[in-house]
Amino acid sequence: MFVCSCICSPEVLSDGQARKTICRRKPCKGRSSYYDSYKVAQDQASACAFIEPLKVTPEHYDMSVAEAGMLPDDLEALRQVIDRLNVIVTFRDTNPACAPHLVEGMESKGHEVMTKTFMKNNLPPKFEYLAGTVSTLPEKPKPGKVIPDPLSLRYLTPDGHQLTCDYDLMDMLEADGDRIPGESAADLELREELNDALPLRGEKPQEVDRIKHGAQAAKGHPETPVLILDKPEAPLTVMDAEKNLLRLETIEDVLNFYHCVGATILPEWHLMPNNE
Predict the structure, then answer these.
(1) pLDDT tens digits, residue range 63-94?
(2) Residues 6+ apart with CB under 8 A from 195
(3) What is the pLDDT of residues 179-201, one digit of tens each?
(4) What is the CA radius of gyration of the chain?
(5) Secondary structure of residue 8 in the 3-state scheme
(6) Where does the chain have alpha helices with state H?
(7) Which residue ranges form the domains of the chain, and what is each CATH number?
(8) What predicted TM-score, i.e. pTM, was given to this entire model?
(9) d(C-alpha 241, C-alpha 82), whole Å
């Protein structure tokens, strides 16, 4: 079996200092590391032809926004900044149950909070109001598996507040496909402009940042590096430098998109064709 990487977890002492790092090998699984080479173009023109049908048309716009898990006016505000700055930004999907909490102005989780938000289909009926808030669960339960006591698994900030989803950046590129380096001045300025453009939220309208860390592909979260994030992701929502909105549903879509815009595939993704 092909081994993608080692996943290294520091053993942290109470004073916050890492004493040692324990690594284990992680074999590649499914689409996280393998792709169908027959669905990936061999040249740039063909790659662009592959992704042309993935551009969202007006009649499918509302459905695509819902799939992304973003509030429609948030997405439009982000698009305006991306269009103005002539960049390409991709986002991982957000739990759609977060929407009412986003509207209400609940704070979004930062990258230091690695646990998952509650999914509605995992909650007993009387606790469905917790859907879209952050739990202490490190992994999402299987769809339909009901959590018997979700109140005991709520994530609360030190001052007792709940958190909801963030808008999870996957990649940020210049219009020519060059990756914007994580934590660079360009990265920080772009994130600040994206957050500043978002509509005010809450009963007493105020700014609420929804982009809480840098892009996963650009190593935009150095404060808590996690090697398990070194992989491509799908589905993604793309806002490109030509004012297009795209939905990339598979890893093959992502690879074709990168090829079309001239972006590099990260070597640490350890991609392998599954049919060769």
Answers:
(1) 999 999 999 999 999 999 999 999 999 999 99
(2) 207, 209, 210, 211
(3) 999 889 999 999 999 999 999 99
(4) 19
(5) strand
(6) 30-33, 44-51, 61-68, 72-85, 99-104, 185-197, 251-261
(7) 31-94+167-273 (3.30.70)
(8) 0.84
(9) 7
